[in-house]
Every structure is written in structure tokens, then in C-alpha cells.
Amino acid sequence: MSSLGIGSVVMFIGFGCPFATAVTAAATAFVLILLGCLKPVAAETVNPEASSSSVSVNGAAGLQAILERGTLRVGTPGDFQPFSFKDPGTNQYVGHDVELVTRLALDMGVEVEFVATDWKNLVSGVAAGKYDITTGASYNMGRARTAGYTQPVIQVGTVPLTLKKYAQQYRSWADIDKAGTTVAVTLGTVFEDQAKSLFKNAKIKAVESPARDCQEVLADRAPVSITSTFEASKLVENYEKLMIVPVAAPRFQNAIGLLVAQNDQVLINYIDVWITMQRYNGFLDSLKAKWLPSLTF
Q1: What burial class does residue 15 get, using C-beta atoms within 10 Å of its C-beta: 0-12 exposed, 13-18 middle, 19+ buried?
Q2: Do 261 and 127 meet the contact criterion of CB atoms below 8 Å apart?
Q3: Region 115-142: what's the mean pLDDT?
Q4: What is the pTM of this model?
């Protein structure tokens, strides 16, 4: 303020200025800022991509929101054996991941609520707050651009399936990657990306949920599909005419974790701690032994 002190300015504003009261008030506010009595309020920055659920109990996920709501909402396609699928006898979700998230909800002191979705919309659903987490999803850099992952709960490889009548035609990965061969995958799954990487000559046929790649093979609309080692084991058990192509080894060792809203690090950390506890207390091993058959190559 150079040679004119703050007190003098106040006197000048209050008594020596001929302007209207509004000008006086504005100038007084300026002086109070200088005195440290009034701080200017910064404009609120709104992230248009941020999920409203982080501040709403009934909106998107968030640890506190889940605890206050009393339910853990879990998005699942429900068509991926033996991880999450519907028991035809009861029409209830069952499987490795179903037991996993049910136990998580129990340890959180809340109820589990399953929300039906499909693979194409799995990531966008958790990002939009339609559910708090998902059942297991393979680690994928495309998904990681939009959603967050917990630490892995299991690791799986990828194998091809075919009909037994094609046993002599398809005996290796190279046998599959030929012009004239169609490989079926489910749209939005990690297997769609893997097929594009594996096969440069074969045709890739992506089918959309509720249709599944294995149905294309069973109906003989595509001679080959690819899926996880665990699902392949269950499918050949359930369908006598299916077989796993006797490749030398599975491709891609996929880490599978639960998807969470990308900006919800508190919930990710919380579930990561829980997963670590279950790994050390043997619960993850017991789930694997119950639901996930082993394959020998």
C-alpha cells in the first residue's frame, strides 16, 4: 500500500469516498482480504467424468456408501463357468466368483446384490456406478483405461475348443490359424483381443451376449472357439461332443481381478487387503480346489 496504511484506506473508503454503498462494500472486502480476514473463494471444478456415486449412498460405489446402503452390488454376466453362472435348477448365481464376493460382502457386514450385465458393458457399468464391483475379469489394458482392478484372485490360461469330429484337423495353434477356419469369441471379452493377436489368417467371429462363442462351436457355425482353461474343462464335461484342442500349452496367462470404479482407490485398497487376508488364511485355495479343475499339458 506504499505510504498509505491499511487503516487509512479504511477511513478513506468509509468516510472520504463519494461513491455508492456498493463500491464501499467491495473495497472493504478487498481490504479484509489483505488483512487475512477474508479469503477469496475458488471456483468449484467439476469433473464431468467423475461418478456421482462417490458422493451418493444410492449412487456409485464407494466404501462408505456400501456400508451405509447395506448392500454390495456386484455386476456379472453370469455366463462364465465355473466363475459365475446360473444354476438351471434354482436360477441362482453360483460359481467361484459368486462365493468369493458373497464372502466379501459377509466380511463387510452387508448383503450381496447381483446385477445382471454383459461383457460388452461390464466396464462401462462399473464406471457409471450401476454396481460397486464386478465378478472376475481378466486384466486388460483397454479395460484399465476406464476401470480399476483389485489385485488378482486367480490366474488362468487360454485354450481352444472344437468338436470331436474335428480332432484330426485341429491339433495345434498353427492348425487353427489357417484361411477357411473361423474362430468364435464373445464380444467384449479378453478372448476377442487375444484371438486378434493369435490368428492372422483365420477369421474371427465375435458374437454378442447372451450368445456365447461355445454355442457357435456346438452348432457347428464355427469349428473353433477360445476360452479359459477352467471354462474349457467345464464345457467338455457338460457337452460330450466338445473337446479341448491338444495344443502344446495354453497361451496367455491371464490375471483375473475384480473391476472397481477407477477413481475409487479407497475401495480398491480395502478389497486388496481382504484378498490378501483370504490368500493367507486358505480361503482362496479352498475356492480353487472346489471350482477350478486343473489341466495337464
Answers
A1: exposed
A2: yes
A3: 95
A4: 0.70
